[in-house]
Each structure stands twice: as C-alpha cells, then as structure tokens.
Design goal:
The protein is globular and about 75 Å long. It is 36% helix and 23% strand. It has 19 helices and 26 strands. The protein is an alpha/beta fold and 610 residues long. Helix 13 runs antiparallel to helix 14. Bound molecules: fructose -6-phosphate.
C-alpha cells in the first residue's frame, strides 16, 4: 500500500526518488519522505505529512539534498496517524540507519517494549521504527548480518529498504509478503515496490521472492536467501511504454483508463481467439481434469470479487459445475471445503493483495489447483499460481479500478469457453455465437463511450443525493455491486447494491421520496421481474435511473425517470457493457463534487496489509 523507491548510482538521488514517488503516489498518499546520504553531512532524512508535492516543496524539488544514494517512501498509514513524525524513512536513535517499509510488523509492540527497557527512545508511533532501532541494537559492524538478525526477530509482512551511514555505497532490501523489485542499469541500481517507479530509468528488473535479501551497489547487486546463501535471479524485461502510466492529456487517470477499455478488451481477448476458438496456451486444464473438477472456488477482494460474482453466474451457466465465490479475507477463516479436484480461480489486478495471496496459499495447501487472473506481470500471485492468465490492460494507476475489471471479466468469458469446449457443455452454435459477440464488444464499448454526455448530464442532476441504491437481478446485480462501489469510493456518497428481489425484505424501508435508485434491467429473461421491483420503489417516491439494452429502452422508459441504454449483446456478456455507464456515472458525480478522483481518501491502490 505504501510505495518504496531507492536509488544508488552517479546522479543526484533526491530528484530521481521524488519522480519515482510521484509515480507511486497512488499506492499511498498521506505522507512521504526521503533519506539521502550526503558525503558531507552523512545520512539526512526529510519527511512530511501530505502529498509528494509537500515533500518536493520542502526539498526544492530534491535539489536541496545532495548525494547519490537514498531511499524514498510514500505512506498509507497503518500504525500511527499520518504526521511528519510517523512518515518514513525512520531512523535509528543514533542516526546510523534509515529504513522504509511496506507491510505490518505484527510483533512490533513486544519489540518496542523490549528496546525501550534497554534505554532506546522511539520518535514515532509506527511499527516500522522497531526495524530501524533493532538494526542499531544488533549492529556490530556488518550490515547484512544485522539484517538477518532483525528479520529473525520480526514477524509480519514487509518490503524493507535499509541504508546505513557506515556503508553509503550500498542499499539493503528484504521482502516477505510485500512486493519488491530491483531495477538494473549501467552504473546504477534501483529498488521499488512497483515497476512504474523505475521504468523511466531501466526496463531490466528482478523480482525479489519471499525470504530474500538483496544488496545493491551502483555497479552490482546480489541476492541472498535468509541464511545469506547467494541466490541466482532471473532478469525480466518490462516491455510496456512509460506513456502507459501517464495521463496523456486526460484530467484524471480514471478517465483515461475508462476510455482505454475498448483497447484493453481487444488486447486481452483478440490474440486468444483463433479461427473461431479460444486458445489459451498458458492454461493446461485437460478434459479429464475438468470432468473430475468438483467445483470452482473464486477468491478475490473488492472489484475483483465483483468480477467473481458475475463469473459465478457465467461459469455455472457455461459449465454446469458449482461455482462458489468468496471474499479472500473470509476464505482463510471459513474452513473452506476444498479438495484436490477443486479449481481455485484467483482474481487480482495487482497480484499483490495480501488477503488474496494468503487465501490462494491456503487453497493450494488444501490441494486445490490455482488459476490466477492477474494484470501485473511478475506479481507474487502470478508467480505462485499453478496457471496464470494475464489481463493485458496495461498499467492501471487510478485507485478505482475500471479497465482491470473489464479485462478480468473478459478472461472469465475465455476461461468459460475454454472449459466448456473440453466439457462439451455448450452446443457448437452457442459457442460460436459467444465468440462472435466477443469480437463485437470493443466496438460496442466505443459506442457507449462516445455517448457519455447523457451520463454526464444525469450526474449533474444527482451529484448531491445523500444516498444512492443500485438494484438488479442475476448478472445485473453483479454489475450493481460494482456500480455502487465505484460511486461510493470516489464520490463519498453512501450507496448500497441489492439484488432487486431482496429489497423488500428490509432495505425498502430506506426508500423515501427523492431517493435515487439506479435500476439495472439488462438481463432479458428477468426484465419484467426487475421492472416490478422498480415499480415498488417508484411508488414509494424514488427517482429511478434505469439501465438496459437498446432493444428494451423504450419499454423501460415507461417506468423510470431517465434511461441509459447499452447496445444489445449476448446475455452473458452484458456486464462488460453495463459497467461502463456505471463507471462514468461515478466519475462525473465525483467530478461535480470536486473529489480527488484518482486518489480517494483513505484508500490505496494495492492493499498489502490484512
Ligand atoms: C476498487 C478497487 C479495489 C480492488 C481490490 C482488489 O475500485 O480497485 O476494490 O479491486 O482492492 O485489488 P486487486 O484486484 O489488486 O487484488
């Protein structure tokens, strides 16, 4: 959730680190800091509550800090409120060590009490500071040995960057359950929690694995296991363009990423459609395995979980196998019924969400085969899964996901078709009809996006509503969940999504004159049923914004106050189209309310704490 960047080389480090932090700001943005080794003044730390700009102002865009080695950090607070003192880097009391950290040191309190009893004074409320103070406590002249002792003492999750005033020619890094990447250049090396921070400088990277420790100098790097035995690391080449992680003239990353959806869908789907068939070369699910498969367990969080809800309807329909969808944070503690015949379908944009990662490991330990749908190449979930299918959505920077959601859905369709072909659960003409419709989706998405003024107009009417409900049945309900989450996370309007038939079992008591209800009624076979539910809330005074397909728009308009329509498509593919007006509605409502759309309060892009 926090962002880490480190640099060691020939150039001034601070401007490079600030630039990296700006690119990482979506990971956490309540405070930021830099630790730079200045050959004249030694290890200097500057940190500040607030956005990266506050840190840039404090350091004159980094020019006030001299030195060619340093660490930077942007924070999403866990232990200790956002403040100057709680910002990273944290220093040991004697100023020998500076530490940046992403994750949570679970036994920090016990360590802190121990160190305090030894006379060490703490400057912050954070869990991270114990790492800096422990480094000082154990240090006898060898930094790597000290790191090993500290790692043996701490429990929890961490990506750590450590620098020592006694050895300014190196940066030490260590990881467990939180991503860390080494960037390799000529005469310099970088450290980062996310490749976006360093791509401007190098495309050659190494992904650290759990339990590994790295030592970086300007000219070289070494990776060790927990016993300091050398580990050979494979280098990877990052091939996306830096412009993919820039706004490119849009006011917000979210707007850019919404608009990019036709391309992202095309990139994810089209190379995998060959001669009318779905070809997933990376997937090795044999007909025998699929026939013996007892169920699919979908595991994910947030919007990825909402893709899972849509996937349950889709995959059960296509495969006639039971599909259970569960929140990753619940999975581990619900004693899940998983066998060696269970396929765990793990969905994660970042591939680093700690709850999803932990649930995936649990599913694996219980014998399931894991198929991961991931956007970030080389992420931990991608590397640990048995099979991985990448969404080729490109980097997603806005905290609220849009194109990752669409491409995750796209892969669900491909997985469904791939398995259905092997299970013989779909007639050839049905299979062909879905493939044909998949090819039409990008152009239909473009059509929706080119008519976005209507949605902008509805947002201008409703942006001040205190509470907004989303209702729908079947996959419309799944899209309603996502529409509601998008709205509340970026506009801060209270919102709930309900299966339309469930509303009258309690929640309808909240409907009063003027309440806005967004009714999703795209699902053809349930259209009349949903309309009945719309009438129920309408007769209690609700304003209704209805969403359906072009062919039913006229019919729906008779009941609702305003209608949005999306092109008709195969019923199973409807969420891909319906979600776009929901994203746009949330975006424009948030815009009218003057919200910080790309960096909503209290949130961070990649949730690497439980
Ligand atoms: C909401 C959003 C989050 C993520 C969730 C899971 O817009 O982006 O709800 O979907 O934190 O993240 P990933 O998919 O990276 O595991």
């Amino acid at each position: 959730m926090c962002g880490i960047v480190g640099y060691i080389g020939q150039e001034e480090a601070a401007p490079i680190l600030l630039d990296g932090l700006r690119r990482l700001e979506y990971r956490g943005y309540d405070s930021a800091g830099l630790a730079i080794f200045d050959p004249k003044d030694g290890l200097r730390v500057v940190k500040s509550k607030g956005r990266i700009q506050a840190l840039a102002d404090l350091t004159q865009d980094g020019t006030a800090l001299k030195g060619t080695m340093g660490l930077g950090h942007t924070r999403w607070a866990t232990h200790g409120a956002p403040s100057d003192l709680n910002s990273h880097p944290h220093m040991s009391e004697d100023g020998t060590f500076a530490v940046v950290h992403n994750g949570i040191i679970e036994n920090y309190m016990e360590i802190k009490e121990f160190l305090q009893s030894e006379g060490i004074h703490f400057a912050s409320d954070t869990d991270t500071e114990v790492v800096a103070q422990l480094m000082e406590y154990y240090y006898e002249g060898n930094v790597l040995d000290t790191v090993v002792k500290v790692l043996n003492r701490i429990q929890g999750a961490y990506a750590l960057g450590i620098v020592c005033a006694d050895c300014p020619d190196r940066i030490i890094a260590a990881r467990k359950d939180s991503p860390l990447i080494l960037g390799c250049g000529s005469g310099f090396h970088l450290l980062a929690s996310d490749v976006t921070a360093i791509i401007k400088h190098t495309r050659e990277v190494c992904y650290l694995d759990d339990g590994e420790i790295a030592e970086l100098t300007a000219d070289s790097f070494w990776v060790y296991d927990a016993y300091l035995r050398p580990v050979e690391k494979e280098r990877h080449h990052v091939d996306w363009e830096i412009s993919a992680a820039e706004k490119g003239g849009y006011e917000h990353f979210m707007a850019k990423e919404i608009i990019e959806q036709p391309k992202a869908f095309r990139d994810t789907v089209f190379p995998r459609l060959q001669e009318g068939r779905v070809v997933l070369d990376d997937l090795q699910l044999t007909p025998a395995y699929l026939a013996a498969m007892d169920k699919i367990y979908i595991i994910a969080c947030g919007s990825s979980y909402h893709v899972g809800v849509a996937a349950k309807y889709t995959l059960e329909k296509l495969l006639r196998k039971p599909v259970e969808v569960t929140l990753a944070s619940e999975f581990r503690y619900c004693d899940p019924i998983v066998t060696e015949h269970t396929l765990a379908l793990v969905i994660s944009q970042s591939g680093e969400t700690i709850d999803t990662l932990a649930a995936m490991r649990e599913a694996k330990a219980l014998g399931a085969r894991v198929l991961a749908v991931v956007n970030v190449v080389g992420s931990t979930i991608a590397r640990e899964a048995d099979d991985v299918l990448y969404t080729w959505a490109g980097p997603e920077i806005a905290v609220a996901t849009t194109k990752a959601y669409s491409t995750q859905l796209a892969l669900v369709y491909l997985i469904g078709l791939y398995c259905a072909e092997r299970l013989h659960t779909l007639l050839p003409e049905e299979y062909a009809a879905i493939v044909a419709e998949l090819k039409e989706i990008p152009q239909k998405l473009e059509q929706i996006l080119s008519n976005r003024e209507d949605i902008q107009f509805f947002a201008s009417i409703y942006f001040n509503h205190p509470s907004i409900f989303f209702i729908g049945r079947n996959i419309d309900y799944a899209v309603g969940l996502e529409g509601s989450l998008k709205l509340k996370e970026i506009s801060y309007i209270h919102s709930e999504a309900y299966a339309a038939g469930e509303l009258k079992h309690g929640t309808i008591s909240l409907i009063e004159p003027g309440t806005l209800v967004v009714a999703l009624a795209g699902c053809g076979k349930l259209f009349e049923k949903t309309v009945s539910n719309v009438v129920e809330v309408k007769s209690r005074g609700a304003d209704i914004l209805g969403l359906t397909t072009v062919s039913r728009a006229e019919e729906l308009a008779k009941t609702v106050d305003h209608t949005i329509s999306v092109p008709d498509t195969h019923p199973l593919l409807l969420p891909t189209l319906e979600v776009v007006p929901m994203q746009l509605f949330a975006y424009y409502v948030a815009l009218h309310r003057g919200c910080d759309i790309d960096k909503p309060r209290n949130l961070a892009k990649s949730v690497t704490v439980e």
